[in-house]
Amino acid sequence: MPFCNKCGSEVQPADQFCGRCGSPQSFQGGPSTGPKAAKRKLPDYFSTLDAHTASILCYIPIIGGVFSIFVLAAERFRRDNLVRFHAFQGLYLFVIWLIHAWVLQGILYETIPRAYVISRAIKLALTGAWIFMLYKTSQREMVRIPIIAELADKSVAEQR
Fold first, then answer.
1. SS3 call for 99
2. 3: helix, coil or strand?
């Protein structure tokens, strides 16, 4: 039976922390080393999510940008180029929205009188693009936003 690295109390071989003092444990052949660690995998939260639904969720306004990052990081969609294309395209729409909200909006307000009209028009156009892409993707139609689609294609090609 192994003992704690810090306080010396008895711990189980599978314990990662001491039950008495709470210090992290590392044993020879314990759970953090050896062949058992290679077999253990993290839970796959996307295992029940189909590719079509993942593609649609990448275009939810604002939230879709964060979801796109999760889709791109998921092991399940590593080889699915269509889902990765939609994730990159949704992510780039989100980045454009961020650039407008954090940079362009401030520049517009400082330089142009009544800039709120222009800013609202840009926000409306971006939101409209997201909603349009949500609808078209849900209908299983492939829509390529002119400049963004080229960036998404390059990003997917680099990931292969």
1. helix
2. strand
